[in-house]
């Protein structure tokens, strides 16, 4: 159960004024910091990869210069959502979604136990990295970004990339490259300042208008639900009000952009909470940061949408939502 912050009527009025200043300030901050850098990191953001696979991704993600741990994590998340037992309609299998024929040719014994098991992440994750690097070698002389060409080869075949002189003009392939490169940013620990979100102010303004609304488990704010929300329903609706469509559940929303540190938070960032601080898939609560160590959130049954402090033992981390990051998220995870 989250700690309750109870305020009287005068304090609520002061709080709303405070939020209005923050809403205006977001745009000022965005203008002042628009030259900031983010992404491109070789290390993984805290908890972005489930603990069971973190060391594998960190190790094998540096197998060759064309990949990095965040890129490899983005591929695995896009392919399987970290499910080692999933089978696709095309019979792609396991956490790395190898088709059996491709596995027979390119699967490796990643853990050195004498077999190559398509279902074992200790083999499948190293095999995915190895296959990426093999494709990168095939297209190394093609003009353009080697990593983009490698991803295009993964999707459309190396021969198409070579014949096209780069990423081919195939919408599925171009979208695949765009999605993985966007997701890469959400798995990477930023190496510099993360650019502010221009949509943050609008999302805060939406959430502010819902203060005092009674919580509803599974609530999306529809008229049939009396305009009530749960935590991720509120954040989804807040960002949808400014044209960004987020996934429905909190742990998927974590991957909608890069991850600022606690001392880098800006109003509009999504802040997340979990009982397992090593695994983003275990996230169970989300709110919208408003500054000063507080968020607007829909906390639990029996409570109302309100201000709550974020500095609690279950604080997991934050995401600065971007339009590209949200669009990149798979709909089936």
Provide a short characterization of the protein structure.
The protein is an alpha+beta fold. Helix content is 41%, strand content 8%. Strand 2 (283-291) and strand 3 form a beta hairpin.
Structure summary, number of beta strands: 5
Distance between the termini: 27 Å
Order of helices and strands: HHHHHHHHHHHEEEEEH
Number of helices: 12
Indicate the mean pLDDT.
86
Rg, alpha carbons = 21 Å
User: What's the helical proportion of residues?
Assistant: 40-55%
* Order of strands across the main sheet: 4-3-2-1-5
Instruction: Characterize the biggest β-sheet.
Output: 5 strands, antiparallel
The structural class is: alpha+beta
- Please tell me what the overall shape is: elongated
Strand content: 5-15%
Spans of 5+ residues with little confidence (pLDDT < 50)? 1-18, 20-41
List the helices and strands and how they pair.
Elements (H helix, E strand, L loop, with lengths): L8 H24 L18 H10 L8 H12 L19 H7 L14 H18 L7 H11 L1 H7 L6 H17 L12 H10 L21 H10 L9 H4 L16 E5 L8 E9 L2 E4 L8 E4 L5 E5 L3 H6 L5
Antiparallel strand pairs: 1-2, 1-5, 2-3, 3-4
Helix pairs in contact: 1-9, 2-3, 2-5, 3-8, 5-6, 6-7, 6-8, 9-10
What does this structure look like?
This protein has 333 residues and is of the alpha+beta class. Helix content is 41%, strand content 8%. It has twelve helices and five strands. It has helices at 9-32, 51-60, 69-80, 100-106, 121-138, 146-156, 158-164, 171-187, 200-209, 231-240, 250-253, 323-328; strands at 270-274, 283-291, 294-297, 306-309, 315-319. It has a five-stranded antiparallel beta sheet with strand order 4-3-2-1-5. The chain is elongated and about 60 Å long. The two termini are 27 Å apart. Residues 1-18 and 20-41 have low confidence and may be disordered.
């Amino acid at each position: 159960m989250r700690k309750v912050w109870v305020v009287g009527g005068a304090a609520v009025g002061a709080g709303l004024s405070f939020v209005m200043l923050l809403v205006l300030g977001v745009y000022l901050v965005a203008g002042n910091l628009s030259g900031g850098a983010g992404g491109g990191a070789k290390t993984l953001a805290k908890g972005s990869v489930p603990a069971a696979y973190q060391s594998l991704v960190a190790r094998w993600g540096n197998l060759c210069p064309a990949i990095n741990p965040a890129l490899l994590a983005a591929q695995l998340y896009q392919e399987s959502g970290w499910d080692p037992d999933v089978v696709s309609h095309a019979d792609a299998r396991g956490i790395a979604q190898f088709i059996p024929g491709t596995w027979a040719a390119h699967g490796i014994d990643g853990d050195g136990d004498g077999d190559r098991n398509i279902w074992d992440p200790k083999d499948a994750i190293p095999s995915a990295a190895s296959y990426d690097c093999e494709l990168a070698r095939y297209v190394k002389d093609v003009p353009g970004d080697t990593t983009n060409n490698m991803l295009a080869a993964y999707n459309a075949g190396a021969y198409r990339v070579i014949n096209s002189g780069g990423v081919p003009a195939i919408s599925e392939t171009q979208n695949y490259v765009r999605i993985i490169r966007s997701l890469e940013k959400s798995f990477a620990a930023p190496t510099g300042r993360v650019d502010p979100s221009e949509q943050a102010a609008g999302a805060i303004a939406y959430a502010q208008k819902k203060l005092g609304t009674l919580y509803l488990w599974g609530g999306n704010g529809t008229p049939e639900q009396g305009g009530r929300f749960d935590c991720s329903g509120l954040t989804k609706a807040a960002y949808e009000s400014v044209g960004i469509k987020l996934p429905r559940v909190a742990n998927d929303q974590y991957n909608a952009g890069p991850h600022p540190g606690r001392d880098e938070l800006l109003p509009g960032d999504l802040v997340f909470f979990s009982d397992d601080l090593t695994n983003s898939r275990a996230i169970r609560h989300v709110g919208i940061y408003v500054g000063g160590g507080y968020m607007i959130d829909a906390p639990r049954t029996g409570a109302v949408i309100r201000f709550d402090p974020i500095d609690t033992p279950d604080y997991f981390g934050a995401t600065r939502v971007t339009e590209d990051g949200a669009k990149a998220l798979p709909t089936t995870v």
